[in-house]
User: What shape does this take?
Amino acid sequence: MKILAIDTSCDETAAAVTEDTKILSNIIWSQASLHAKFGGVMPSLAQRMHRERIDWVIKRALGTGNVDTIAVTVGPGLSIALGVGVNKAKELAIKYKKPLIEVNHIEAHLLSPLANSKTEIKFPAYGLCVSGGNTILVLIEKIGKYKILAQTVDDALGEALDKGARMLGLGYPGGAILEKFARLGNPREFTLPIPLVDDKVRNRFSYSGLKTAFVRLVNSIKNPSKQDIYNLAATYQGVAFKHIENIISYQISQSTIQPFNHFLLGGGVAANVELRRRLRILGRKFGFKLHTPYSQKVCGDNAAMIGVAAFLNPKYVEPSKIDRDPSATL
Ligand code: KG4
Assistant: This one.
């Protein structure tokens, strides 16, 4: 099934054509540099830019080809940004009399390792979505059936990394730059508290305490050297990831059911090499194989993953009834 997929959930205007789990085109127009001067995404600017670019990305994704179905992200995401994609998908479905599929953005991130992949995943499996807007660990009983094991109570991991990067003056969005700096640093030069180590239930992620401790630490260093900045980046990123590892380990070791053999990782932060390395080590301990998106372009927001999720778990909807769902849950 050939699908034209659209995603305008945040600050990327994205369209793609997929056939089953194969990606035929994946066009992303990122607005990140426009939002950079505000230090975060400005919803009204995002909406305006999506409106300006949506036809262009769709045209480029389609080329001269035709599709059978249209799919679009309905949520979660920024309401007025989502509206642009949803309205466009509705308009095209009506005009060309094509079936329409609504897609949950988090589900698409979770299933993104299946794009362009021939590996057979056995379910149940674990899934972790780490992006700018979400940090969520799930048990994927089967495609379409998810049990949330842990999710964030404040910032998402990507958001926390972006804020840490900003405190070091590395710009926005800073996750990828922080990773580069962290590679040059010593994570043991400074200490920061690992979030929620004494938590009894460990079914949540939290980054607010770490952020506050990091502001204090950064402010306590007068005239930091370049090496200090590298070390701070390494310490902050290391602790942020240690928290993820702790919650995963706890959830797996507490599970009364047999540990599973497959672990799917998706979202913008899935591009991080250090995070992948740590999760592979956990995999050796708990007996799971880590699956990641085949390219960086499929980690961050993109529409190819929307097409793949629409194929794997199609939720058909009448074009006249489709609506954005900014706080959609899995
Ligand atoms: O998936 P995504 O594009 O947006 C949401 O759906 O929210 O993720 C964006 C996030 C940003 O916070 C960005 O800093 C982070 O992913 N990110 C990274 C890396 N590349 C992108 N974080 C850590 N390391 C990276 N290499």
About this structure: The first strand starts at residue 2 and ends at 7. Residues 195 and 243 are 6 Å apart (CA to CA).
